[in-house]
Predict the structure.
Amino acid sequence: MNDTAIDYAGVFQALPGMVALLTPDLIYADANEEFLRVAGRTREQVVGRYLFDVFPDNPNDDGASGMRNLAASLERVVATGERDAMALQRYDVEDPERPGQWTERYWSPVNAPVFDAEGKVVMLVHRVEEVTELIRARGGPTGTGSRVLEAELYTRARELQELNERLRQAHAREREVALALQEAMLPARRQVRHHQAAVRYRPAVGALNVCGDWYDLVDLVGGNRIGVAVGDVVGHGLEASCVMGQLRSALSAASRVAAGPAEALNVLGRYAGVVDGAESATAVTTFVDFDEHTITYSSAGHPPPALVHTDGRVEFLDQATDPPLDARPDPIPRPQARTTYSEGATLVLYTDGLVERRGEDIDTGLTRLAASLARHRTLSPEPLADAVLLELLPPGGATDDTALVIVRL
């Protein structure tokens, strides 16, 4: 292949199907030649105009719903950033040469988002296939076969559309429950014993706002100490979030009475063995002693915490790594290790959604994380967390959940 630049504008105009570009406000930004030809409109009649000014509902049809259905689909794409394939739509079109004359038309639309570098929806791809002739293919335009086929297809499409709407409403109710769970189980505590801390949670693309990742910050008994932990439960949805809540609460309680992080994970491992859905769950916990300037840590199959030293060096705390919570035979104790730090260092705990990418070695993700932390190390925890997420998560969102905890030591 040579280095000749691709004329994407030319490619867009030459696309064999009907394709238009819309702004999030539903203004036509462009339309390809096939779209204009089939719709029977000129470029001047379309580009720069509001979608439903160009194609309103048929005022002579009291049951017309094409405009309402299309608007709902496009608004969903803007709100969720997800592609939406619509059911078959009857959407009559006015003859531009004969005002007031409407032609019965049937369409199969698909709407998809276009993101900017920050993951915001900035454009909508509106692809349409006209299926009017297919519906009328048998028996001619006025034949009995055509009417039967038309009625059958239209009825099935409306049933599918109604079913999809019920599913969306059920998903919305489930999401409300998930939001309540997130607020109850993952409180955004920003100060622990007056030390600066930031927490972030990002659900996977297409998932509920609560899934299987969790974090915790607790004040420990005795001395100027805190416990910082993150964990990951396999799966998504309310079931995974309920298991997540049980494990987080159990580790929080165990950490307050355990002699160290390894003992806390031993207790959690025994508990995970009797919790349905906790199979292969991972966790890492750290005990920070601010008087001694030490971090004691232990990991159950989880990516290692990162310690950002004041000179920019990033140390991964990987000297006490063990299998996941339910995989360690009892009563063999889990390992733990200790490291020291200087005042002003930064402790970072995270889940694998931040560093893992499909088809990529985990070391590549850890290297990317270390570089980002070193580059932004002078920021306080809140802006540091935002900078790391912006650099490491894909623009359209990650395919796995991500939890992130940052504590200034």
The CA atoms of residues 88 and 154 lie 7 Å apart.
